[in-house]
């Protein structure tokens, strides 16, 4: 699967604040597909929770996206959508933003991954 993804050129998508999105766009992550849909969403104070939910669901359905990066504070707004996504691809990774540090206790994907392993197995 990883070889297939690399050959086909899968994307990383970003849902985040302006600083996060600009940073990733400057790093070359930005892309617009054949339907003229970008692989990023800049969330500001005017962005509704519905818009974020719609974007997340759209990214999950796109077959050209393998990873969805989302600022953790934004992930909190659409936690129910993230928790309902159970497929391994696209992988959903919660990342910190400039104004909101990462809190592992809020990351539902990390909690799910930890639940797969017994702490004794990790020693």
TrEMBL record:
It comes from the Eukaryota. GO terms for cellular component: proton-transporting V-type ATPase, V1 domain. Keywords: Hydrogen ion transport, Ion transport, Transport. The keyword DNA damage does not apply. Subunit of the V1 complex of vacuolar(H+)-ATPase (V-ATPase), a multisubunit enzyme composed of a peripheral complex (V1) that hydrolyzes ATP and a membrane integral complex (V0) that translocates protons. V-ATPase is responsible for acidifying and maintaining the pH of intracellular compartments and in some cell types, is targeted to the plasma membrane, where it is responsible for acidifying the extracellular environment. V-ATPase is a heteromultimeric enzyme made up of two complexes: the ATP-hydrolytic V1 complex and the proton translocation V0 complex. The V1 complex consists of three catalytic AB heterodimers that form a heterohexamer, three peripheral stalks each consisting of EG heterodimers, one central rotor including subunits D and F, and the regulatory subunits C and H. The proton translocation complex V0 consists of the proton transport subunit a, a ring of proteolipid subunits c9c'', rotary subunit d, subunits e and f, and the accessory subunits VhaAC45 and ATP6AP2. Belongs to the V-ATPase F subunit family. This is V-type proton ATPase subunit F. It comes from Gryllus longicercus.
């Amino acid at each position: 699967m990883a070889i297939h993804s690399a050959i086909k050129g899968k994307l990383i998508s970003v849902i985040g604040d302006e600083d996060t999105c600009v940073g990733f766009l400057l790093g070359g992550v930005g892309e617009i597909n054949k339907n003229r849909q970008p692989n990023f969403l800049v969330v500001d104070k005017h962005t509704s929770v519905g818009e974020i939910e719609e974007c997340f669901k759209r990214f999950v359905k796109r077959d050209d996206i393998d990873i969805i990066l989302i600022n953790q504070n934004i992930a909190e707004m659409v936690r129910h959508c993230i928790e309902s996504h159970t497929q391994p691809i696209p992988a959903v990774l919660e990342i910190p933003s400039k104004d909101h540090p990462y809190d592992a206790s809020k990351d539902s994907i990390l909690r799910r991954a930890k639940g797969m392993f017994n702490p004794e197995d990790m020693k």
